[in-house]
Specification:
Elements (H helix, E strand, L loop, with lengths): L3 E7 L2 E8 L2 E6 L14 H18 L17 H13 L6 E2 H8 L4 H9 L12 E2 L11 H10 L13
Parallel strand pairs: 4-5
Antiparallel strand pairs: 1-2, 2-3
């Protein structure tokens, strides 16, 4: 399978993507090697990668709330895919869901198991694992808690922090 990779600097940092002719296969968050993405791939894969990256850049700039990209789920097991697709359905832009609630919706009793699946999400942001929070706080995030906070601020879930400068 020919995969195309692209990367772009956004207000959130460098985001990278990989796509096949069937759809998006990976999103690399800032600090996770997005800058090292190599251009390449055949024309259909390259077109998918470019379209996904354009939408991610729009999201990072606050100009997009919904992604319209095909995801290539090859390599993602059935349970993991069901959890990720359920997340996309129940946690739209500006909303959150707890690990426990997401687990209940898909028949997984242990919220920690849901956390493990979120950590293995191959297409974060497009499948918004940053919107999954702990019952008592933010929980974790593969891009780090600072990025999770920034994403939730961007979506209006958390209030924007004041820039006070040197006090």
């Amino acid at each position: 399978m020919a995969v195309a990779a692209r990367a772009e600097e956004t207000p959130l940092g460098t985001i990278g993507v990989e796509a096949s002719a069937a759809g998006l296969t990976r999103v690399r968050l800032p600090g996770a090697g997005g800058a090292g993405a190599r251009p390449g791939g055949d024309e259909p894969a390259a077109a998918r990668a470019e379209a996904a990256l354009e939408q991610l850049a729009e999201y990072a700039s606050g100009q997009r709330e919904i992604f319209d990209v095909e995801v290539d789920w090859s390599g993602v097991d059935e349970t993991h895919r069901r959890v990720l697709e359920t997340l996309r359905e129940i946690a739209p832009f500006g909303a959150t869901v707890t690990y426990g609630e997401l687990g209940r919706r898909v028949g997984i009793a242990d919220p920690r198991e849901v956390g493990v699946l979120m950590a293995r999400n191959p297409v974060p942001l497009v499948v918004p694992c940053h919107r999954v929070v702990a019952a008592d706080g933010l929980g974790g995030f593969g891009g780090g808690l600072e990025l999770k906070r920034r994403l939730l601020e961007l979506e209006g879930v958390l209030p924007a922090r004041l820039e006070l400068g040197i006090v």
